[in-house]
Design goal:
By secondary structure, the chain is α/β, with parallel strands linked by helices. It has 2 domains: 119 residues, 3-Layer(aba) Sandwich (Rossmann fold), CATH 3.40.50.2300; 99 residues, Orthogonal Bundle (Arc Repressor Mutant, subunit A), CATH 1.10.10.10. It is built from 8 helices and 11 strands. Helix 3 links the parallel strand 3 and strand 4. Helix 2 packs parallel to helix 3 and helix 6 crosses helix 8. The longest helix has 15 residues.
Length: 229
């Protein structure tokens, strides 16, 4: 069985070496980069996950994340931000850009490994959900096996978390889900993400769905649902 690969990106060599040593002990294959430009180049190797520092010279982590999320061949790679920036604004921005998790420094190796395992578990190709038939609502078609969306015959690109939220709501159309329930189903229960993150993702999904955006209904004081006709 091939090892899962992790791209570790940080401009502090001591941190990279520490993470590389501990991740290899967990039987991961580790790729390293010390700046944003190199990170983008090495992301082309399609690692199974990217552990990404934010504050780096040249391209910072946010710019690297934007580049990866806009690339059709790389957009589904899970990204965990590892950063000394602790403000809520930075956390929200990172999650809006499509990060799967956000870990503050100083680092805890045990916490990082647990978060990595949690994110990779959600990506596990043995998850039978990806083999479910396409989800269809009028002229909206979501194929989870290929991570593609078609709206009125045209392909529509959504970042990973937006895709998962939309697919989850459509699969369970007619049911109302609180923000907490959506966070637990999409991010997992062991990841701390603020409620506002769901509101931001829903707003972006609605904008991209254009006339279909109204299909995602806000149930005041409760949460969201995909309308069931």
């Amino acid at each position: 069985m091939n090892k899962l690969s992790i791209l570790v990106v940080d401009d502090e060599k001591d941190i990279v070496d520490l993470l590389k040593y501990n991740l290899e002990k967990e039987n991961y294959s580790v790729i390293t980069a010390f700046d944003g430009k190199t990170a983008i180049e090495k992301a082309a190797q399609k690692p199974d996950l990217i552990l990404l520092d934010i504050m780096m010279p040249g391209y910072d982590g946010f710019e690297v994340c934007k580049h990866i999320r806009k690339s059709p061949n790389l957009s589904m790679i899970p990204i965990i931000f590892l950063t000394a920036k602790s403000s809520e604004t930075d956390e929200v921005l990172g999650l809006e850009l499509g990060a799967d998790d956000y870990i503050e420094k100083p680092i805890s190796i045990r916490k990082i490994i647990a978060r990595i395992k949690n994110v990779l578990k959600k990506k596990n190709p043995e998850n039978t959900e990806v083999f479910d038939p396409p989800l269809i609502f009028k002229e909206l078609i979501i194929d989870r096996a290929s991570y593609t969306i078609k709206l009125k015959g045209a392909e529509l690109f959504l970042p990973k978390k937006e895709f998962e939220i939309l697919a989850f709501l459509l699969k369970n159309k007619g049911r109302v889900y609180s923000r907490e329930a959506l966070l637990n189903n999409i991010w997992g229960q062991n990841v701390y993400v603020i409620d506002r993150t769901i509101d931001v993702h829903i707003r972006k999904i609605r904008e991209k769905l254009e006339s279909y955006g109204d299909c995602i209904e806000t149930i005041k004081g409760v949460g969201y649902r995909f309308q069931d006709e």
